[in-house]
Amino acid sequence: MSEDGFWGLDLDSIVKEHGTPTYVVNLDLVEKNFEALSSTVRRIYSRFKIFYAVKANPLITILKLVRELGGGAEVVSMGELEASRRAGLNGGEVLFNGPGKTEVEIEAAIGFGVYSVNVESVEELMTVRKAAERLRVKARVGFRVNPGVKAATHKYLALGFQGSKFGLDAKSYRAALHEAKRTRRFLPMGVQMHVGSQVFRESDFQKGFLNLLRFVNVFKSVLGFPPEFIDIGGGIGLNYETGDTSISLNRFSRALSKLVNNPDWPDGTTLVMEPGRALVGNAGILLTRVLYVKESNGRLWAIVDAGMNDFMRTALYGVKHRVVSLTPRRGRPVKYALGGPVCESSDVFGEYVLPPLKKGDLLALLDVGAYGCSMSSNYNGRPRPPTLVSRLGRVHVAERRETIDDILRRQAVG
User: Which pLDDT value is given to residue 237?
Assistant: First the structure.
């Protein structure tokens, strides 16, 4: 693939100015993905809200675009809450999730006036009550439930199975509802679930949705009114062999149609979704240069300057991303093991058949817009890479390259 194949950008000039490794995110494609999801859902059910899962890629630039498109932010930490605020989102456009919210985070979320704080335990609900009492307000709360579905995905990405750390089981859920009913500091708003990430099977979505409706019926029976919103989470899978979400989006939409047309679906309820990867996954690339080419006992290695600290997904999940060479060279394709500079055997991106490689060649790791820069670290004392964004052919820095001083500034010396 030529450089022109990447959104018409001059990647060689980008690398000359910004170096490698460097992330590039195409905001035009993020917008396209957002509109594709919106139009798909709109054909099925008109009353819905999209809250972008900030954990996928927390760039304020992306959050600003999501706000422009009419979406909100799903956050799980103080940092993500503050990024959303700086992107111009108001409290009603932010949804606060997470199984381990601190008292400080809960109070900040309530004070900001978030759309809902979705609790995952009875003890957490008590913490919300105390925060609401301190602030002398009523807290908008939702209830994250465990749908009891083990989705066919990586074991680290399955979230809704029985015994998971996520959500309330049936007994705890009922106890939380009764507590919310007798406490004046709560405004019970909705029910939420999430079966997992990278979900492709329609049956996994369908099972989760049907089980969610059972929790909705309990909500109505205990509180005496239907939920204002029903939150189905995210999880729409991205095919990393093609960079396409259309197959899983089609399966998701069929399951969604059955959900909102079910007799137990409350009239007038807002459908809430929390997509992350489906919006940004295929919109990012990671540029990296070949440092060395070597042979080891018959295995040909290309060592590159991007490592697992820059992009964790392969080491963590064992997933293989597409890689293309951006340096034109003739010759018979060769199989290379692609390894990074980090001193771990897991710092390997996989084996790829590529044109003959030499020191200095430029490569692109594809479909890294989700859980790429957001999961990067300083392991091995390595500064995190910058992220550039493009929109309508114009490129600017959304997140600068870290420096050694940035890394060491937090340390106390002496």
Answer: 84
